[in-house]
């Protein structure tokens, strides 16, 4: 990845020739496509592109994260990470850093980010998570809070990945950002390059990773500073059109990600504003992929906020924007958003037609044109969104059937979605008149409300509890009601 001009020494990386040999005659882009296909074969989600392959081969990535490790081992049976040219994990992060901290020598874990040394650039504040305020600590009741989640949490607690912030790239501390925000930059007096564009893009990826595991309630406020600074970078401008295009797309995707954190936290007004900002950015940049994404999330928000007709219109506008993008799964998701709007209007025929269209498009399968942000969209999501449609129409038996399938199909890595679909199942079973099964599902969902902080999921469990109060004598109901009340 290119960086801004700098007179400071840059870290020297040893090229990973072993990994380069594994790529063979394929281009970095073609090899990245193979990585994404292999990930889908084993139910993994990785956002691999040519830039990532270049960082590996240059030696900048000394050891892949756990998701990439699983994919690479699947692609090259019989090879170990060291056979592929990677360094042992303990030599890169984790044990050595913890040992230094345990000795009390005050040394922070070494970071080797790309650098941006232009002092005139706006700074993206490091995205730090504090376990005492967000609950991102250890939760023995939730088996999905695994080693990979813990690695992500530690990365944020120790200052966040460099890609999340230009401030991190230049070594600025979080306290410095809070006390002395970057001054406005006069046009033409700073150089925004590929390093800054990459910082914004990776901010989006990291926010999505943590949201998949923990929900939006504990992440929203930390992410808004990064969004503000991303737009400052965009206002500063870049000399190359390719970088400007990346900044527009990255800032727009970051606005959607932050908007989703607000949405999941019940801050509907903030979410609406962020989605509108993303849509405006898409229109300015003439970016139909970003426009489709913004309309997709706007439709989802409108449904949750009780504006079903707006949900239908936004979903249809998203389908119009996406029609030439070559992604059947994106069109499937937008059809599901439309179905949710029709369900909210009580229009069974419109809902059924949109659901049928979504299923037909989904059946065409994933492809390389599917947007990176759609890594969550699989069969479990399809079932879960259909369950929500039937629930809105009051067809509780069908809703419960689809919700149960969503729970069974959901990949364990998407902890927040497992909590969501289990809470949906609890509510559907309670409305269906199955109090014992509803209480059991509700109790399982409560097990997630340590690592997962989602106002939306909490509200769903509260609604399920309200339906079960008259059935307190049924087995398990009283215990669930007591736990739910304590959690609330």
From TrEMBL:
Residues 92-127 are annotated as: Disordered. It comes from the Bacteria. This is Tetratricopeptide repeat protein. The lineage of its organism: Bacteria, Bacillati, Actinomycetota, Actinomycetes, Kitasatosporales.
